[in-house]
Amino acid sequence: MLIRIPRGWELKESAATPESAYLDRRNLMKGAAAAALAGPFVASAAWTADDDPSAGRYPLQRNIKFTLDREVTEEKVNATYNNFYEFGSHKQIWRDAQKLPIRPWTLKIDGMVQKPMEIGIDDLLAKMPLEERLYRHRCVEAWAMAIPWGGFELSHLIKLVEPLAGAKYVQFETFMNPRLASGQRQTWYPWPYREGLTIDEAMNELTFMVTGTYGKPAAKQFGAPLRLALPWKYGFKSAKSIARITFTDQRPQSFWEVIQPSEYGFWANVNPAFNHPRWSQASERLLGSDKRVPTVIYNGYGEFVASLYKDLPQDRALFS
Ligand SMILES: Nc1nc2c(c(=O)[nH]1)N[C@H]1C(S)=C(S)[C@@H](COP(=O)(O)O)O[C@H]1N2
Ligand SMILES: [Mo]
What we know:
The protein is an alpha+beta fold. The chain has a single domain, classed as Sulfite Oxidase, Chain A, domain 2, CATH 3.90.420.10. Helix content is 21%, strand content 20%. The chain has 9 helices and 12 strands. It has helices at 8-16, 19-38, 75-79, 94-97, 121-127, 154-161, 199-203, 255-259, 302-305, and strands at 106-111, 117-120, 131-138, 143-153, 169-174, 194-198, 208-213, 216-217, 227-229, 242-248, 283-286, 292-294. The strands form 2 sheets. Strands 3, 4, 7, 8, 9, 11 and 12 form a 7-stranded mixed sheet that branches. Strand 1 (106-111) and strand 2 (117-120) form a beta hairpin. It is globular, with a radius of gyration of 19 Å. The relative contact order is 0.16. The model is unreliable at 1-44 (pLDDT under 50). Bound molecules: the ligand Nc1nc2c(c(=O)[nH]1)N[C@H]1C(S)=C(S)[C@@H](COP(=O)(O)O)O[C@H]1N2 and molybdenum atom. The site of molybdenum atom has 6 residues, from loops. The site of ligand MTE has 17 residues, from loops.
């Protein structure tokens, strides 16, 4: 069991939580404690994994280049409200997601690279410069959070496999295991979950491969042991539990794009001026608080990424 010392932001966040939420949380905690006494299957913090072999690597040094304009979302709020359709199409998938075995876990990198590889997650963790970053996270459904991610910049991994000059896109694929993941038995979805970026987007310094959350190995519902965090794009671009990365000269078609291309386009850059066909994107709800705040172009990360899109028409193309 890892003993963890609360750090500055954690104290600040709980101090800033509205009283009503704080009281609710105390009741929730009482419930969790009672459940822990009641049976062996519920740990005291059942939404986090405490048996991850990479636990000794955390917490990681924070990279202070990445700052927030809001409080970090409370861990429990974040860890019990997730999109992970492999485990169901509702937000309370965290318990089901604990079924996902994350060791052994092999990442396959193939396609247009000089050095294709298959690498175990712990070997990968040993090779990559790990750090912590505080990122905003904006779902296309108009809710938002702020999260301390641990992990590494994808560019480091890309340099290792040496893409060929003709590789223009990077495709990410989640594990496929319908026996284990009930959502994958819903055959009308185009499994496995896929996402894609241009190679320039993938090489951008913001593009982060997440291996940890809240100072620990990533909880399974966040997409352990390896997920993307692309804070300037809507959340669906940030594929979870990635098993394969493929370099290609063809633009990948993503899971949501196959389902509904008019609602979930390839670029999916956060853009308050371009509404979703069924709702406004002008503002967002900050989970864990009662606040609604204006949405900002590129989710506030324009200084890092705006130059990637200077040659695209500036209206619809930013989204689709
Ligand atoms: N494999 C996979 N990755 C996924 C999803 C999913 O259903 N399956 N949902 C996406 C969506 S819509 C969002 S908003 C984020 C949610 O991440 P969170 O649960 O950590 O907030 O994961 C994205 N990555
Ligand atoms: Mo989302």
